[in-house]
Amino acid sequence: MIERDVVIIGAGPAGLACAVKLKEIGVSDVLLVEREKKLGGILNQCIHDGFGLHNFKESLTGPEYIERYVERLKKFNIDVLSDTMVVNLFQDKSMILSGPWGRERIRAKAIVLAMGCRERTAGAIGLAGSRPAGIYTAGVAQRLMNIDNYMVGNEVVILGSGDVGLIMARRLTLEGARVLMVLEKLPYSSGLPRNIVQCLEDYGIPLYLKTTVTKVYGKARVEGVEYVSLDDDGKPIPGSERFVKCDTLLLSVGLIPENELSREAGVEIHPITGGPIVNDTYQTNIDGVFAAGNVLHVHDLADWASMEGELVAEFAKRYLEGELSKAKRWIDVKAGKGIRYVLPHKISGERDVNFLFRVDSPYKNRYIIVRDKDRVIKKRRVINLHPAVMENINVKSEEMKGIESLEVMVE
Ligand SMILES: Cc1cc2nc3c(=O)[nH]c(=O)nc-3n(C[C@H](O)[C@H](O)[C@H](O)COP(=O)(O)OP(=O)(O)OC[C@H]3O[C@@H](n4cnc5c(N)ncnc54)[C@H](O)[C@@H]3O)c2cc1C
User: How far apart, in whole angstroms, are the C-alpha atoms of residue 186 and residue 1?
Assistant: First the structure.
């Protein structure tokens, strides 16, 4: 069986950045595996700009952002197997690759899971009604329009205010479609506040909160949808049903980390993030198996996914060199009041940690507190907190000396 030092599964922003970083820091035996013919993951279909503001201090389109990494990949002569899918992953860190060239079982000393995420579908949200043509997930519509040059519809309703849906509202408008409304079941948008302004408000597209689609009409093609207002418990308010004529319904109702391979290998999955449970070295419960990017938790910006890939590269190198000493004990990190999830899930208390978290609803003028029972380790004032925005707070190992527990909370 072929043995490699590091195999990275997935060549999106996280996997690409991880591969480049590994080479930069002197790991020579790296293999990057990508199931698509083209490297870059989802960013290939994101032709709008706004990528790279943090990593390159420039506003790039998705393909331009990817090109920056692909150039460096070529410069370092990194081994890439594209059009090749990892179809099985085993606990002993072996995996089966399948491509046009055939199938092969290989093993790695360290594996980086960077498989990204996929979209929630109409089936996943139990949408009632028939299944006529004209219902797309926002990402599929994005791909059809931006890569295949296919216009998906003329009169469009968007269900869900996730970022992909917001970006598609603007894209469809610029292409001449009428985006009639965006409906969101929550009392706040699930997309970034800046996308609400730049993709909806700038184009006069209404966003109706606490509202959802209850029925789709149409046989061959969507002819309209019924939508209702929701009460504070998320239940439809009787009598609030309305009908809007449209030929297209776009769904932007969430992203799911792609962890079928991780589960097969026995990687523990977190119930809230849907990604692997990792410690402060981004290592899963399987020694030498790391995770980065959207497969770990859905990021708001591709830049953060790349940065996570680079961080994981550092840990993977130290793992290969036997320098990633086992922690004497792991402390579970608790997502306290107001926090939906926090990463990493386990810490040793022996190394500095940049905690990443999302809040469970919008807050204004609050404190983010990191504490060990009654002892406050860190406290930071924040003006605005929004569930769509990934937040972070840095804590040094000295500050965690002697801790018995750790909780991140909003106060
Ligand atoms: C539809 C959609 C649209 C988006 N639009 C925007 C946007 O406009 N702006 C923005 O900032 N962010 C956007 N995002 C989020 C952004 O794409 C992510 O933050 C970023 O792409 C995450 O990078 P990643 O490397 O973790 O995952 P991805 O970019 O998803 O890359 C994962 C890669 O892994 C590959 N892969 C998966 N499984 C296997 C396997 N078994 N074997 C081999 N390869 C595999 C996939 O083909 C893919 O190339 C969007 C996300 C989605 C899903």
Answer: 51
Higher pLDDT residue, 329 or 35? 35
Residue 326 is predicted with a pLDDT of 76
Domain boundaries, the chain: 1-119+255-326, 121-253, 329-411
Side by side, which strands form the sheet with 363-372? 346-347, 331-335, 406-410, 363-372, 375-385
Residue 10 alpha carbon to ligand 1 centre in Å: 9
pLDDT digits (tens, 9 = 90+) for 173-198: 999 999 999 999 999 998 888 899 99
Q: Which two tokens stand for residue 204?
A: 């006069």
User: Which tokens in the block code for residue 139?
Assistant: 């990402």
Torsion of CA 89, 263, 21, 299, to 10 degrees: 150
Cα–Cα distance measured from residue 201 to residue 161, given in angstroms and rounded to the nearest whole number: 13
What is the residue type of 355? Answer: F
pLDDT bracket for residue 287 (50, 70, 90): very high
Which atom, in ligand 1's list, is nearest to the CA of 302?
19
What fold does the segment set 121-253 form as a domain?
Answer: FAD/NAD(P)-binding domain (3.50.50)
Pocket of ligand 1 (CB under 6 A): 9-15, 33-36, 41-43, 46, 51, 85-86, 114-117, 119, 139, 142, 163-164, 167, 255, 258, 261, 293-295, 299, 301-302, 305
Length of the chain: 411
Tokens linked to 221: 């093609």
Cα distance between residue 116 and residue 101, in whole Å: 24
Residue spans of beta strands (DSSP E) within 114-265: 117-119, 135-137, 155-159, 178-183, 207-208, 211-217, 224-229, 242-245, 248-251, 255-257
CATH class of 329-411: mainly beta
Instruction: Report the amino acid identity of residue 364.
Output: K
Class of domain 1-119+255-326 as given by CATH:
alpha beta
- Residue 250 to residue 169: CA distance in whole angstroms: 9
311, amino acid identity: L
In the chain, % of residues over pLDDT 90: 90
Task: Tell me: cis bond preceding 344? Omega within 30 of 0 counts.
Answer: yes
Burial tier of 38 (Cβ tally within 10 Å: 0-12, 13-18, 19+): middle
pLDDT at site 224:
95
Note whether 182 and 162 are within 8 A (CB): no
Please give the average per-residue pLDDT across 339-346, as a whole number.
97
- Report yes or no: 377 and 395 within 8 Å, Cβ to Cβ: yes
